[in-house]
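In this section we walk through a basic example: taking a raw amino acid sequence and producing a predicted 3D structure, encoded as discrete structure tokens. The instruction is simple. Fold the sequence below.
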Amino acid sequence: MWLFLGKRLFAIVPILLGLSILVFAMMALIPGDPATAILGSYATPENVARLNEQLGLDRPLPQQYLIWAGNLLQGDLGRSYALNRPVAHEVFERFGATLILAGSALLLCAFFGLLAGVVAAVRQFRWTDRIVTLVVLVGISTPSFWLGLLMIMLFAVHLQWLPASGMYAAYGGGDLPDLLRHLAMPAVTLAVVATGVIARLTRTAMLEVLRQDYIRTARAKGVPERRVIYRHAFKAALVTVIPVLGIQAGFVIGGAVYIETVFQWPGIGRMLVNAISTRDLLLVQGGVLVVAVSYVLFNLAADILQALLDPRLR
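The resulting token sequence is shown next.
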């Protein structure tokens, strides 16, 4: 197991290097001049040239990348132009809120996706299977931001059951019940598409396992059906589903950009939208890099969990 883990960790190194190059190149290709955006009405040619020199933006791109990567290895993501504070402080303060939202959505989609997939497979071709398939199809086809707006109109505006935006109430909030009330709509909105994907794959994996000879043998020996399904079939199907859970974790974190904007959630997605509008390149680079690294780490955790369940992979 340790050898397997070491190989996976070693394989992450070139991935992270490629991610850093890709993130830097994407920011360099964005049209416009950061110095002009920062100076605004004071953006005379002399002031722009002076600020570019101060920020190091007048140097060749390879040299800029090497300086940025060297600082990155020391834990320094640079300093935000617009906020005038270290990028690392701003990113990790916001990333905590994103983890709360994405983690809640991931728990929801994992639980309901696995449950719906198992139920649909066990009840294949029955009305339960047809209803689950229809709901999953609608969920996958629904744009998340549009679903979020509909939920705001229904639950916040008309029914007034839940708050429309924010993470805590402006006055008199701050406790766990207040957080859960604000978290309900964005977490459900973010989880809908991922739940549909997991449910469809779980159904397919379960149907394949239920056709195996050892499942027929267990049933022939008189093993209770519940034990056959949840102890034998589900455990085998879970090995196939776990890598998709890692992929969906990355999808959930990436999709948080839209959901945080719709619900005004103070996470890293909303921070990236504001940073792009102000051309704060270092803040955008730091935020995108943290999200990308999180995606890689989620997939690493999925690989490790899959290896624990299936000794053949080790």
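Looking at the output, two observations stand out. The radius of gyration is 24 Å. The chain has two domains: 2-73, 95-313. In the next section we compare this with other chains.
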